[in-house]
Every structure is written in structure tokens, then in C-alpha cells.
Design brief:
The chain has about 350 residues and is mainly α. It has 13 helices and two strands; from the N terminus they run αααααααββαααααα.
Length: about 350
């Protein structure tokens, strides 16, 4: 910081000639004064010096009638850092500005204007840099990071957050959990169709993905009365595997929670049965009906209810087989109903797939 030059000598000049306070005692007294006292003294001293200057002019014009004035006295030193503290403290400035000389006020105003100018330039530079950074981010893509895959580990699709949100509002149809559907949802998350849902429950109110519109994007087509949900047995098993992982990840207690356990037990009951693939079209409608009923009123996995449903399935298949034989054919290629009481080990050995978990 550089203060304006003054023509008058100050205490900062060691070579000056002391006029009115040349003694060490006087200098020590003046130096001990606080800033307000020194400013007050300087203001009064400057006013007296002005009067002395006017009297000197009058004396020079008429030395016989007007006596010479006393010598001009010097002002007390105000350090540059003290002026800076006054300038940057609004409260201090307001309380002392009536004591500040005009040339210092002009310097302070000049400093303020320069600082504001520098600030505007910095903000303009920062704004330009920020805009350029935004353009750069819009232009640049995320780096591609290769994923190392283990050929011995089966593929598992990820679940996008939008699925977890809509699951609070509505049951998600099973076809949404095929590997292809889950990958499509994750890849197109930015352009998924959304709609507004209203509910007193905050979890069920707001904007969520539109399942009906998304079904069209996923090309999931099946009639409302289609109890197979448009799935063949192989695709059904794929969807079930993903759906069980999804419900397990939603359960606050993890795999041991009631939601996870019911989902596992529900599907495992049907998929661990003997000749489950061959009988898929017979038991799948019952599976869907029970799943929908549990969504409306959760009663948990009740073994007797499921056993009763399976008995109905077997009775219906047996009746159809009997009718087919009466017509001279066989619809189930001699389905071995007499083997229904075989042990779990023998049932599993005849199943082409690995058994599902039992919970």
C-alpha cells in the first residue's frame, strides 16, 4: 500500500527538525496517544497551521502592521497499517471520518474503487473459467473402465434405483426382471417414462416410472388374462432368480427377513417340484394368483395352502391325461403320478436343473 506524498514533515522522517515538540519527553507523550487522540490533535493542528499560513501571507503584504505568525507545527504520525484498518472497518471509519484529512479520504476512495474493479475482473475471469469448465464437462465423456469378468460366475443384472422407488407404489410385473429388461432400464435410465402418483403415503406420492409405458419400450406383450405373463419356463426361471435377489435387497433384515423368505419359499415350492418344467403351464396360473393375493394381503408362506394348490394341479393334469388316453393319445407322456410321494433326493435327481433354495 502506498500513501500520497505530503509536503509537510512527519515523525516518520528521522531527519526532520523538531519545532514545537523537540524534547524526548514530548515525543514520548505524543507517541503513547491512541489513534483517536492523535487524529483529534492532527485535525486541530492542521486548522491552526492554516490560520498561521493566512497570517503569514498577510504579514508579507503588510509587515509593519501585521506581526509574523508562530512557526508551523508538524502533525503526529499515523502509520499506513492504521489507515488501512480504518478504511477496511466500516464502523471505525464512520466514527473517525470527521477527523480524517481530505487527501486520506481521497486515497481511501481510490483504494475502494480499485478493489471493486479488481473484484469484478476476478469474478469475470472466474465466470469465464466456470463456463468453459461446463462446456468441457458437456463435451467430455466418462472414461471407459474395463470390467474384468469371471467366466465361472453367472451373469447378474443390476437393479436401477427407479425400480426400488416404484416398488413402493405398485407390484412390478415379473417380465421386468429378465436380464434384457434390467439392462435396458439401467442403460436408458435418463429417458425412462415417468408419471405422477398421488397418495397420502409420502413413499407412494410423487413421480415414478410409468410401468405401462415402460412395458411398451421393453416390448413386453401379453394379454391381461395371460396367467403365464408372456413367459416360457426358461425365461420365467431367469426372471425369478432376479426377482428373488431384488426382494432380498429390499428387505431391511436381508435374506433372513420376512419379505425375502416369503419370496424364496413361494417360488421354490413350485420350482423344486418333480417335472416342474413339463407342468409349467399347469401350475403357473396358481403361482401368479397366490403372488397377487399376497401383495394385497400378506399372510406369509403357509405350507398347507401351497400343498392344496399343488394337489389341484396334479388332479387337473391327471384328469387331462386320462381324457387324452381315452381319446387314444397322451398329453403328458405318461406323467408318473405314482411318484408324487418320492423323497426330495429322488425328486432333485430327476430334475434337469439345480433345486431352488428352500428358505
Amino acid at each position: 500500500m502506498q500513501l500520497p506524498l505530503r509536503s509537510r514533515p512527519t515523525l516518520q522522517n528521522p531527519d526532520r527538525v523538531h519545532i514545537t515538540h523537540s524534547s524526548a519527553e514530548a515525543r514520548n507523550m505524543f507517541t503513547s496517544w491512541d489513534l483517536t487522540t492523535r487524529l483529534t490533535f492532527n485535525k486541530a493542528n492542521n486548522e491552526n497551521n492554516i490560520r498561521r499560513g493566512l497570517q503569514r501571507v498577510a504579514h508579507l503584504r503588510d509587515p509593519e502592521n501585521i506581526r509574523a505568525p508562530s512557526p508551523v507545527t508538524s502533525e503526529l504520525t499515523i502509520q499506513p497499517e492504521e489507515w488501512e484498518k480504518i478504511r477496511t472497518n466500516p464502523f471505525r471509519f464512520d466514527s473517525l471520518k470527521h477527523l480524517i484529512p481530505d487527501f486520506i479520504l481521497e486515497w481511501m476512495e481510490s483504494r475502494k474503487n480499485q478493489e471493486e474493479k479488481d473484484k469484478r475482473e476476478r469474478e469475470e475471469d472466474t465466470s469465464a473459467e466456470a463456463e468453459e469448465e461446463k462446456k468441457k464437462k458437456r463435451r467430455l465423456a466418462e472414461p471407459l473402465v474395463p470390467v474384468t469378468k469371471n467366466s465361472l460366475v453367472p451373469f447378474q443384472a443390476n437393479f436401477h434405483g427407479a425400480l426400488y422407488e416404484i416398488a413402493h407404489v405398485s407390484p412390478i410385473p415379473l417380465p421386468f426382471f429378465s436380464n434384457d429388461s434390467l439392462q435396458f432400464i439401467s442403460a436408458r435410465a435418463h429417458s425412462l417414462p415417468w408419471r405422477k402418483y398421488k397418495s397420502n403415503d409420502t413413499k407412494k406420492s410423487g413421480y415414478f416410472i410409468d410401468l405401462e409405458a415402460l412395458k411398451k419400450l421393453l416390448r413386453i406383450k401379453y394379454a391381461e388374462e395371460d396367467r403365464l405373463e408372456g413367459l416360457d419356463y426358461v425365461l420365467f426361471v431367469e426372471c425369478v432368480n432376479n426377482y428373488m435377489r431384488f426382494e432380498t435387497s429390499r428387505d431391511p433384515e436381508g435374506p433372513a427377513g420376512s419379505r425375502a423368505q416369503f419370496t424364496i419359499q413361494h417360488f421354490s415350492f413350485f420350482l423344486n417340484k418333480r417335472h416342474t418344467a413339463k407342468l409349467y403351464t399347469s401350475w403357473k396360473p396358481a403361482e401368479l394368483r397366490i403372488r397377487n393375493e399376497q401383495y394385497l394381503e400378506f399372510t406369509g408362506f403357509v405350507q398347507g395352502v401351497y400343498d392344496s394348490e399343488w394337489t389341484k394341479v396334479e388332479s387337473r393334469v391327471e384328469f387331462e391325461e386320462t381324457m387324452a388316453k381315452a381319446r387314444g393319445g397322451s398329453s403328458w407322456h405318461s406323467y408318473p403320478f405314482q411318484s408324487n410321494t418320492t423323497s426330495n433326493s429322488s425328486s432333485s435327481s430327476s430334475h434337469p436343473n439345480q433345486p431352488f433354495p428352500q428358505g
